[in-house]
Amino acid sequence: MFLVLKTRKTVVRNLIFLFVFILTITFISCRLTYQRSLTSNKDLIDQEEMAVILQELFNYRNRLLQENEVQKLEALYDTSKRLGVWAFEHQARKGKYLQNYEDKQGILFIDIKTKLQVRWAKRKNSIITSNLVASTEYKYVYEDTPNVINTMRIGTYHLLDLKVFKDEMLISKEWYTDPFADSLRLDNIKTKRNKELILSEKSRDFSRLEERRRSALDYADRYCGAAADEEYQYAYNKKYRNYNPLGGDCANFASQILHEGGKFRKTGAWNYQRGGSQAWVNAQAFKDFMLGSKRASLIAYGSYDQVLKDAYQLLPGDFIAYEKKGRVTHISMVTGADSKGYTVVNSHNTDRYHVPWDLGWSDRGIKFWLVRVHF
Predict the structure, then answer these.
(1) pTM attached to this predicted model
(2) Which of 119, 143, 176 lies at the terminal end of a domain, its last residue?
(3) 171 shares a domain with 205
(4) Residues 121 and 215 in one domain
(5) pLDDT in tens, 62-95
(6) How many domains does the chain have?
């Protein structure tokens, strides 16, 4: 059975890489076409044309990340400068993380696709700077059920520099909040027992959820920003302030889900008027208020290994608080489960849609609060 699975995995990977050469040629062709337009009109950056260039770049890079092709990945970056080296090294670690997560989880990422929305692009000398929203969809299957496809999305906000050379453009800088940043030591928690548990589980049925939980789920899916369906224009609810520039919007989003979707009433401590109260917008305070007010109760607390089995009790509308160095730094709202019943979540900062609850948070130093919300 193991040999069959490994053979299937190899075939899938080989089929994927049949397209890499074509993608590479297309990417180079697009870069050369754009270079000619730059020569004729040096001060004008055509946003639509820039979107085509960046889309090809992200498509090709996704393929390299999926296959952990480090050398080919490095060729996309201007490694003659420190910021280019840092940008490349971070992507290389991300590719390794995805590979480790596959092994830990018993899955295979079969496709990674990004949709881009270029907000603006400008040129100064040989540098083209672009501000863009990236909505990346990951499809994965479990080793023992390769025909059952699971889908998740992650939304990120990028400031990216391309250095224009004579016949090519290379990434010289890229800044964005990476959802995988807290999991670069994933191999520290990889155990055979955990993988066996994950693969032994079955899908879960949420068709009988109470109305308030279903309403909370609808709100969470509608307003998860760059990870939401494209028809929603990757937007947050404009009734509320975006707290990402002030440190994070995760608790603000969780509060909105419970108030707007779940119909929880505001209180003196938990409220939003011109801005949010501490319990509304701060992750630690949000967790403390929900537990202290008896609107929620604790299912489990501890490391990944300690809470993995309990995570299968979580329902849409519950939440997970992520503790780092003794303090809660992030809140995710439960929005369902994948084909193996593995809990998935939505959140802001970074934006997530139906993402496995530990993806990006699997480091041994993270402690998890699994919390049941009482609707």
Answers:
(1) 0.86
(2) 176
(3) no
(4) no
(5) 999 998 899 999 999 999 999 999 999 999 988 8
(6) 2
Whether residue 114 sits in one domain with residue 15: yes
pLDDT tens, residue by residue, 180-236: 766 655 555 667 899 999 999 999 999 999 999 999 999 999 999 999 999 999 999
The dihedral formed by the CA atoms of 57, 60, 63 and 67, expressed in degrees to the nearest 10: -100
Residues 156 and 206 in one domain: no
Task: Judge whether 349 lies within some domain.
Answer: yes
Residue where a domain terminates, one of 141, 176, 211: 176
In this prediction, residue 30 carries a pLDDT of 43
**Nearest CA-CA partner of 358 in 256, 367, 315:** 367
d(CA 92, CA 305): 27
DSSP 111-126: EEEEEEEEEEEEEETT
In a domain, 186, yes or no: no
Q: Is 64 exposed, middle or buried (0-12, 13-18, 19+ CB in 10 A)?
A: buried
Of 253, 322, 328, 251, the closest CA to residue 284 belongs to 328
Sheet strands (E) in the chain:
107-124, 127-142, 145-164, 169-175, 296-302, 319-324, 327-337, 343-347, 351-356, 366-373
251 with 206, same domain: the answer is yes
Question: Which residue range forms the structural domain that includes residue 208?
Answer: 201-373
Which of these, 166, 170, 222, 217, lies nearest to 53 by C-alpha position?
Answer: 170
User: Would you say 361 and 370 are in contact if contact means Cβ atoms under 8 Å apart?
Assistant: no
What residue type is assigned to position 289 of the chain? Answer: F
130-156 confidence digits (pLDDT tens): 999 999 999 999 999 999 999 999 999
* Amino acid, single-letter form, for residue 313: Q
Residues 159 and 247 placed together within one structural domain of the fold = no
- pLDDT at site 167: 82
Measured from the Cβ of residue 43, the count of other Cβ atoms closer than 10 Å reads: 8
Give the H/E segment covering residue 56: helix 47-67
